[in-house]
Structure formats: structure tokens, C-alpha cells
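Sample intake sheet
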Amino acid sequence: REQAHYVTTLGGLERTQTVEPMSNYFVGRVKKEFRAGATTVGGIFTSAVRALGGDTILTTRLRSKATATGLDWSHSWNNRVYRWRGTLMASDVRGSERAIALTQRSPTHFFQRPDREVTSDGLFSTRYDTTATSLRGYGLYTRLAKENGNWIWELQQNWRSPGFEVNDLSIISRVDYRWMNGNLARQWLTPGRFYRSAFLSYGGQMQYNYDGDRTDLEQYAFNAFEFTNYWVLRSYWQRNHSVNDDRLSRGGPVLGTVGFNYYQLGLSTDPRGRVVWNLQNGIAVGFDDARSWSLRPGVAIKPAGNVFVQISPSWNWSQDDAQYVSTVKDPTATTFGGARYVFGYITTRTLSIDTRVNWTIRPTLTMQLYAQPFVASGDYERFREFAAPRTNRKLEYGRDMGTIARSATTARYSVDPDGAGPAEAFSFGDPDFTSRSLRGTAVLRWEYRPGSTMFFVWAQQRAGNDVNGDLDFRRDTRALFGDRPDNVFLVKATYWLGR
């Protein structure tokens, strides 16, 4: 159990609060091989149990018990040319009514979505129930593939039920989907007159939520061609069709999205050289003419046999006409269940530079350095709301409906959604932003005896935010080095027992 001491803002009284309860975490894994490893069967069981006691701050926020179990298998045949693999999972979490309600409302589940098709079979319910003290779910994954030969292919299914929850001992960002995928590829592994190898693939995928809404539909093709001089040319195309999105409104109704085409081209030079160049360029064009563009050049330098330096800058510019801003309660907005979901047209820009240095001082002494400055901005304009659920048509404030005005003194927008109508006016802050960060790590590794090693680590991170909504290299660099850093120093030692 971990406790924190604090001082109240009213009266200056000292208080103590448990911030991490006494807990037990367990992970058990078993796996058995058959047919010289060509077939495997395994299982896993995880458990998290927390002693919350009568502390209402803990019981309303944390789950008291979480268990998950799974079965997995892999079976190959025909000299391991073909393979079938899969996983079955089930989860169960328990806690107070408020803790389980908080779980149901989390972005992982969004049980509170007003247009959710409710099913309640007592075991895997999708009903938003504020009196529930448990939540159960299941998941499955399976893949059938031909993995060797000139022609290869795969078929996949991946399901997560709305109540599947494993975040107490793992990480899962979303559930409530049935995903399916198929890929076909041809590879040339025997060098020819103009190439050393080539790879061409085409595939597609679809996804539905448990209400039957199609939330993803994609087609894509990839090509990689390695020339006789070891240069590699890569190309990629992807078409995302217009579908529904059950997460765009952050727990509100399902909305429509606008599809786009994405094109990417990359080229890299001979990796055996002292200097290796890489360039990747991508562009996306939406069906509504919204666009994005990215450029990722890079260079790897080997000035000596024991030194490796890699510099990889990245630039991205994109447009999106449906970036979520806020949810406003409004009884007159009956189409959306008594709320208005405000979106904005956003232009984002991101710039980052990844730098790595590996230096082998001696076989037993190495140094690794990493640094990543990062700046991102978002410029919002033309605020709007959707005309209706399950459509991608939008109504812009001040043009298609109502009025909107921005106060320069308070940096807030005031919106009257229906002019002289019954809807009440509302306001929200200007969401423009500029975010910056700098992460760096230095690791010195010393093998002081065979098999025994010491690591000396220094990590620093600094971050800051402004409301400018644009990028200014000189201004943002100056601000970045003015941000307060967080430093972590770590020493790790291992000792090999034996001869």
C-alpha cells in the first residue's frame, strides 16, 4: 500500500490518502509443443485483487477484482507451409457500482452511447447499468495462412465483445468490434537480371461493431523491389471507404466519416555503405478534398566500425473536417438524444527529429544515446455539428445554422445554434494548441565480468503547451529549452551465477 500526504486548500490541514491500495497481481502461463514444435497449445490466467477497504475514493475509481483467462494454439502442416493459429479469451471484472459504471463509460467501451443496440443475456450484457457490480466479455483471434512459397496468403478474424476488459494487467484501447482481413502476395526470392528480390501484395479488411455498423472498409496494395545494387524501392496505396464511426462523438451517437485515398513512395540506398539514405513520402486525398502530406527523410552514418549514427526527421501536415471539440447538453437537440456534439475543421502540423548514437567503446563497454524533439500544432476553424447520426453531412455555425463569434479578450467562442429558436446559446474555449516535448536517454552498459552487467541510465523529458495553433521554429525551440525538465537516474546490475 502506498500513501500520500497533502495539505488542504481550505484551512491548511494535513491529510493522508491511500493512492495505491495493497494489491496482488498474478500471471500464469503454460505451453506444450507437439510434433517437434509444429503444433503448440497454450493457456494463460491473470488475476488482479485489490484490498480497497472502506475508502470511498478508491472504491469509486478502482476495480476490486479482475481476472482473465485464455487458450491459444498454433498448428502447421505440409512441412510448415500452412498454419492455423488462434486465441480464445474471457474476462471478468468486479467492483462497486460506481467503479463498474466508470468502466462502462470509459473510451474503451462507451456503453452510454444513446443509439447502442442493447442486449442483456445476463452474461455478456451491453446495457449501460449503473447498478452493475461486474462486467464480462470475450475475445477471439484466428488466422489461416500459407506462409511459404512463391504465392502466400492469409485470412484473419479478430473479435472483442463490448464488455471485454483486461486493462488491469494489460493494455487495450477499444473493444466492440468484429474485424476481418485477407491478403494475397507474390514474392520473387531468386535474383534476376534487374533485381535481387521483389514482393507484391494486395488485400483488404472490414470491421463491424456488435450493432452491425460497418466501422472500417479498406483496400490496399504494397510493392517492394530490391535492385541488384541493394537499393530498395517501396510503394503503398490504401483506400479507406466512407463508413460509420462509433467513437467519433466520444460516447455519443454513431456518425459518418468521409473516405480517402492514401499514396506512399519510399526509397532506401545500399545498407552496406558507410552512409545509408532513406526517403519516404506520403499523401492522402479525401473524398471531400481534405488532404494530408508527410515527409520522412533519414540518414544512417557509420564513420567507424564501432560507431553508428542515425538521424530521422519527420514532417506531417494534415486537414480534418470533423475533429471533436465538445459536448453540450441541449434538450432541443432531440436528434442526438438531448446533446450537441461540436466539431471543428483542424489543420495540424507536426515536426520531430529522432537521433540515435551507438558507440562500442570496448566489447565490454558500450554507450547508447537517443534524443527526440517534437512539436505539434492544431489550428481550429469553421466549427460545426453533424446534420444527423450515421451521416457525414455537417452544418457549419454562422453559415448553415445559427451564429458564432469569438471574443479576443477571453479566447472563447459563443454559439447560438438556432438563432431566434428555443435552443440556448453556449460557449467553449478556443481549442487551438501548440504542444512540444523533448525526450532524451543515455545508457552506459558495462559488462564487468562475463555474463554480469551494469547499466547506468539518464533519462530526461521536458514538455510544454501554448495556445498559438501554429509552428514557429525559433519560438518553439526557445520555449522547449525553457520548460522544466524531469530527470530520472537509474542503475541496474545483473550478476551471473555459475562458472
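Comment: The mean pLDDT is 94. Helices lie at 56-59, 97-105, 473-482.
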